[in-house]
Amino acid sequence: EIWEEKGLMGSSRTAVRSYQHRPVLRFDGEAFRLKRTGELVRALLVLRLCAWPPLVTHGLTLLSWSRRLLGSRLSGALLRASVYGQFVAGETTAEVQDSVQRLQGLGLRPLLAVPIEEEPGTDRGGEAWYEGNLKAMLHCVDLSGLGGNGQGPHAFSSPQDTHERLTRAAEEAERKGLGFGVKLVRGAYLESERALARERGTADPTQPDYEATSRSYSRCLELMLGHVCRRGSQCQLMVASHNEESVHQAVKRMSELGIPLDGPVCFGQLLGMCDHVSLALGQAGYAIYKSIPYGALDEVIPYLLRRAQENRSVLQGARREQGLLSQELLRRLSRSP
Ligand SMILES: Cc1cc2nc3c(=O)[nH]c(=O)nc-3n(C[C@H](O)[C@H](O)[C@H](O)COP(=O)(O)OP(=O)(O)OC[C@H]3O[C@@H](n4cnc5c(N)ncnc54)[C@H](O)[C@@H]3O)c2cc1C
């Protein structure tokens, strides 16, 4: 009822249900019980492999060696059973549909990611490049029909804003009565952004260190949640982060501000990463989207390597997730309840 008065998003039934049953969130791996044993084993092996820095740095070179040594068929099969299977929804419409259904069965929502790669600052230009991108986007729109029932994939897009720019933009949208949507991400393209700034002789656009980045993320999160609280569904936020602290902060403040679980705030994480957090959020009734890339092996590998480089710290820090996966596998082996 409180939310109805404030005009927050969602039907009054959703609001009341969320208000009455706000669950305590624990990212303790309990949600892994929902996964098949094969999926747990693959996740454990792939996450271990991805925490090995040379694999992420020299991925393409290693791939061409493996093709030369094993042949492209065997090396392709190994990739499909491991990295591709873990992080990619599939190649054909049927494969993507199957992945989407599996996610939905676990309480997760699909967010189709078009695997297009471009270095920041490069000017590729040319009709063929734009035509290629347009084709990929239209294919994504076609696939977006897979979700059905209004809970299907959404396309979000937003720049990586600093607190100041975000404040100005949000206030301007509020003044003009415009809807405002933000996907809040923490850092990206760190090395290339710095190299580009050096080359151009401009100021380094990145934060001085990780702690400063996290402080900025936390302030931006607080700012956006305040706007959501005031403006309801006129303001939408995706907390796109694998960071448990950021997710905890969002969940805690949503509760304090009376923002419904499945309303104008949602969470976003990448397919195959941080599943202990995604599953716990989904099971608790929060709107959690998994970003799912799709496409042929050769097209998706450069995209995956880029994501792995951006998420190097996440992958190296995935020890906790690996521990939770091992714990669940051991529990199944010992058949404890
Ligand atoms: C659903 C989803 C959608 C995404 N969409 C985009 C997108 O559209 N565009 C995009 O660029 N990225 C996108 N990302 C990637 C995102 O920007 C992060 O790279 C990634 O999520 C890792 O951050 P984290 O909060 O999950 O993890 P954490 O481990 O908490 O943070 C790691 C991040 O901090 C950054 N960082 C560390 N030090 C600094 C510094 N000094 N200055 C600046 N940054 C620093 C790193 O580059 C790394 O990205 C997306 C991520 C998700 C989950």
From TrEMBL:
Primary role: Converts proline to delta-1-pyrroline-5-carboxylate.
One cellular-component annotation, GO: mitochondrion
Catalyzed reactions: L-proline + a quinone = (S)-1-pyrroline-5-carboxylate + a quinol + H(+); trans-4-hydroxy-L-proline + a quinone = (3R,5S)-1-pyrroline-3-hydroxy-5-carboxylate + a quinol + H(+)
Keywords: FAD, Flavoprotein, Oxidoreductase, Proline metabolism
Pfam family, any one: Pro_dh
GO biological process: L-proline catabolic process to L-glutamate
Protein origin, superkingdom: Eukaryota
Cofactor annotation: FAD
GO molecular function, one term: FAD binding
Organism of this sequence: Sarcophilus harrisii (Tasmanian devil)
Positions of the Proline dehydrogenase domain: 161-316
Name of the protein described by the UniProt record: Proline dehydrogenase
Family statement: Belongs to the proline oxidase family.
Enzyme Commission number(s) from the entry: 1.5.5.2
